[in-house]
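Appendix B. Raw example, untouched.
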Amino acid sequence: FDLYMATDVYEHLRPKDLSHAINEAKRVTKQFIMIRPKPSKDKRKRLHLTVWNRDKWKDFFTDYGLTIIDIGVGDRVDYKNVFLMKVI
């Protein structure tokens, strides 16, 4: 595939499962990954098991060898966390 896309998915995974998820994303695409973890204030972590801010997500993706091409910064809060990344 040229593009792997996941919206409103990664924040529902347990932090310990994120490495498997991102490695699988890298396995199935050789080009681009677009992930949109929705910002959440679910501090009780009932549905949103990984509650991270944008900088923490950015660090996570770069730690897994992804080159960030763009991060959405539109006026709407729900699009500020769109990460477009290149697989290296």
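End of appendix B.
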